[in-house]
TrEMBL record:
InterPro entries: Spore_Ger, UPF0353/GerABKA_families. Keywords: Membrane, Transmembrane, Transmembrane helix. Belongs to the GerABKA family. Signal peptide: none annotated. It comes from the Bacteria. This is Sopre germination protein. GO terms for cellular component: plasma membrane. GO terms for biological process: spore germination. The chain crosses the membrane at residues 295-317, 367-385, 391-410, 422-446. Residues 1-22 are annotated as: Disordered.
Amino acid sequence: MFGFSKNKAKKKKQQDSSAGASGGGDITFAELIKKCEQSHDFVTFKKGVDHPFTLYYYKAMVNPLVIHQILLPQLIQHTDVSLKKLEKLLSLESTVYTNDVQKIQNSILTGSIFICSEHEKGYGILVPAATAEKRTISIPETEFSVIGPKEAFVETIEVNMNMIRKRLPIPELQIKEMRIGKLSKTRVAILFIDGIANKENIETVTQRIEKIEYDHIIDSNYVLQMITDKQTSIFPQLINTERPDRVASVLAEGKIAVLVDGSPSALTGPTTITEFFSSFEDYFLSWHVASFFRLIRLFGVLFSVLSTPLYVAVLTFHYEIIPSDLLGTLIASRSGIPFPPIVEAIILELAIELLREAGARLPSKVGQTIGIVGGIVIGTAAVQAGLTSNVLLIIVALAALASFTTPVYQMSNTIRLLRFPLIIFAQFWGMLGVAICSALLLGHLLRLTSLGRPYLEPIFPLRLADFRDALFRLPFNKQTRRPEHLLTQDPNRLNKQRVNKKDDIDE
């Protein structure tokens, strides 16, 4: 008895919470209309005093062509029909005959027109008539590629779904939709391929999105920050991409994608750290060239993170490891500089970050000019004024250039931040400090997961089979299986025996 009462109370609490989150609660139709009419863009339309039908809608949300070319001609011609009969005469898809006030509210707020009659109190027809304002499909901005498709996502979720379905025209591509955000009621779609994607990954993503408690969701980055495994980590644990071809590719691997209405990007996961250093353009090049470029990016990232800390550590503690031919050059470059190495390193690093931020926030043409001219002027002035050495200026400039080789913008921001703790550790303990900070960083990465899957895979845990498309890329005929860490329902991508079989050609 007590268990039944407890469950009943819990169920009632959930219902009350759901009603409160939707903003509607238990209100009557008259109260709903009274609340809506307080807004000046809400329209209550009735054709004449004796006309039985009344239309309710938000003017900014509906397409006026639906009203003037479809609804009004039918309403003027048929004044003595029932709502059920009128629904058939309209010949529109997705019309709903209902008296559910909560459903009426949600539909009106998303661009539907509610038609009610004086003869059928409480009931009416919901006619979907949302205006289809959308941006033209353009080229990717942050993931631009010289070779391959030039389409990028837009802010309309239907268009984004279309671009993905166009690349995966199979019934197994499943989409789960839900709305989140107490005020925004943002549409969120979870995409996966049934029969390939791991069901546990699907449930993990679904549950985490359903549990989001926030009033306003306006972009996929909001969702990304709320569903990641470890929100205190500076490392991105899901990939935020603007390329529909990349999303289609990872769905075929067995991953999950999340689309958010109003966002020109999609989330994909589970992901690994090596994916952040692989450009999707790699798959449009020969495997030799793609592998070489990936290794160049990894070297660039290591150089960007470690070059300045090593400079500070060597000049502060370890002069003895500098070659004698180079020592004279370093001494000459630092002669007359009043600051220790860490101060000049921090000055130059902050100057580079200021130039980056200024270039990113200004209009594109002005930003490029500021970045080039500002870098040259500030660097030259700093050296001539004796604030920094020309050797460190070269190192910092090369480190900044190397950080741009990261194809995923999220990881590029992480790399920019990592240099500063390493510089501080190098100032206090030299090379030992760099080693300690690197060990702490590695320990953090070993514990990190993406949707419960290891973040450092295939390096840890070691999976040699997944190295075929990690630090380097092997030919497509060698990638016969999907990544092991995804635990897909169907691990085989293609038949290995058929791929390796060579048919004889009769001459």
